[in-house]
Amino acid sequence: MSSTTETVDGAEVADPHREPQAINHHKDPKSHILLTLAAWLCGLLFALPVAWMILTSFHKEEDAATNPPSLFAPLSLDGYKAFFDAGPWPPLANSLTASVVSTILVLLLAFPAAYALSIRPVRKWTDVLFFFLSTKMLPIVAGILPIYLFAQKVNLLDNIWLLIILYTSMNLPIAVWMLRSFLAEVPVEMLEAAQVDGASLMTTLRKVIAPVVMPGIAAAALICFIFSWNELLLARVLTGTVAGTAPVFLTGFVTSQGLFLAKVCAASFVVSLPVLAAGFAAQDKLVQGLSMGAVK
Amino acid sequence: MPPTGSPLEPTNPTATRHTRHRRRKARVLAVAGAAALSVGLTGCAGWGGGSVGGGGANSIDVLMVNNPQMVDLQQLTAKHFTAETGIRVNFTVLPENDVRDKISQEFSSQAGQYDVATLSNFEIPIYAKAKWIAPMDDYIAQDTAFDQDDILKPMTTSLSSEGKIYGQPFYGESSFLMYRKDVLEAKGVTMPEKPTWQEVAEIAAQVDGAEPGMKGICLRGQPGWGQLFAPLTTVVNTFGGTWFEEDWTPKVNAPEFTEAVQFYVDLVRKHGENGAPQAGFTECLNNLVQGNVAMWYDATSAAGSLEADDSPTKGKFGYAPAPVVKTDSSGWLYAWSWSIQQASGKKDNAWKFISWASSKEYEELVGEELGWTRVPAGKRASTYENPQYLEVAKAFAEPTRAAIEAADPTNPGLQPRPAIGIQFVDIPEFPDLGTQVSQDVSSAIAGQTTVKEALDKGQELAEDVAERYQKRSQG
Fold first, then answer.
1. B95 in A contact zone (CB under 8 Å)
2. A2-292 CATH pick, 3.30.300.30, 3.30.160.20, 3.30.420.270, 1.10.3720.10
3. pTM of the prediction?
4. Residue A220 CB partners (closer than 8 Å, separation 6+)
5. C-beta of residue B452 within 8 angstroms of C-beta of residue B444
6. ipTM
7. How far, in Å, CA of A203 to CA of B304, rounded?
8. What stretches pass through the bilayer (chain A) (predicted)?
9. A89, A183, A202, A241: best to mutate for the B interface, most B CBs within 10 A
């Protein structure tokens, strides 16, 4: 979850109003050092549980469960062996399908929507924007029973496409809001220049606007991917043997009889790898967005 | 920031034509996309459970709790059951609380997604009354190799409703007292053959601190009807207490109930494990294996872990029957069991799977391939006659069998009961009631409240439950 929070913060930092402040700090070396220290401290604080998880995943079950913790117990790959023996590939493939497809769908839908809310706003665009946000106000758990019964009626229980549809609609409002704030900063002059050169709407969107707001698109895509990848509640209730996702599979290692910490840590580490990979892949795009703002 | 709009309408004719062309292209793309999506929707539902959809007609879906015995079963199914019968078994494995949620959601809506699920003897009579699970009597009659008579009597009783059998045990357990023989011996204490709770409390005081950091006894203090109140209800029973009398009069703050809880709380506060208010089965197992406690009153199935080959305390344990006060025996009865969903369309295959998983042959298979300590025991009389099993389990096999045989789920205390069950009252309202009361008793163990306060509150909750249950069953 920590990576999620950071990315959200990152999107906020992209707000150009904050930039002058940051520059001021750079000028004062003392506060610069202090800030760096604080940043490292926060970073370590966030990394510590993850490091602990990775260390535990390489211990034997008996060593993982001791109190006080045995830091220097001999390392072992038993946890990973148990994880890979349990057949993790179908759930991982399901998670990947649900996350990637829903993220693509979200971007395809959110990009035109954001355009219609910023560059060429529709009538009452603020109302529209808040309507989008209002769909996030109902807690998912309040809707879970109707969704379950609906899925049962239309025969979509345990079907990955149901999750794709739900994840798309779950992430769409966030993506629209994020992309709108990026699109709103595209200078009118650029669009007019494109128009003068005879570019159609699609060409303008693809060749003029998209490259400028790439950091925004990358940030939105990453957020959507992470949210879908980590989603547990819907997946646990609506899937079964066929469409079960990685988080559901992960919880399956918890048992009320016997030890399971090392196994769960190993499984958690493997399951969080794709998110880390996605974060790294999007990193240079994001950093570009942070350092430049949406537009120079 | 307000959006900065500007008129961008194409004005020259070439651009208009261009746009129209683009629009047509976009529409074609959209139609193609929708078509691809609908093909996907009907074609591939996910990557698990076989090729297409739910794995085809010759397969079943099983929802089960993640206990070590089930993980073993998962390993052996493809290699043996599927190879022999051609029936593919798709498993969903979840932790205990999650699996209970999912099963009640699945079975109450009769979604038919799963053919078989692991239910316990708590759920089976309730689900049977609701007609969510299918009776097995016809299958049992035809399948003579299954040998129903070999299943221990108390198991069959607790998995039946109105004379029909609705579940088959996978492994069963009662409760008994586990203790470190070497520690008791060093202190010159002998465990009576049939200890009373008062004797156990004395021994706990004597062995407390026998080794550095060692406490006298581990007793569950973690809130939860299935955690704290599993052992505690058996203590209440043998002290002469009960949750309800036969006519549903609640007796939670009656003298016997209070005396039992006070005894339990005092014992665990004086000579119990560290962190008792949070200790459940797993924590106590750890405490015993690591030598932090000398005794433990809990499930008989724990003995398999204590005597496992990699256990550092293997061979050091003695086993005594569940301590008593006013009753002859006080052990509980619990069995993770297989049930068939009423809405399942593959009941024949489901029975074939159950008949295999609960069979004598499966126990032998586990013994030979994975080791005899891992056999899902506690359900068949024949297990306790098997020389190979007895060889590795000699320390606890007979105490386990005796504890299960002595358990009487219909009459576990001094007074007649309104519902079946030893460590629980078999009504849907009990988990909520038990869990709420257990939270206050756990606070009493932590010293934040008194037993009297906890039970007075519990009595009010129980009165409410009795009223609701009676109203529901009459109406």
1. yes
2. 1.10.3720.10
3. 0.80
4. A106, A107, A110, A174, A175, A178, A179
5. no
6. 0.72
7. 70
8. 33-55, 96-117, 129-148, 160-179, 208-228, 234-253, 260-282
9. A241
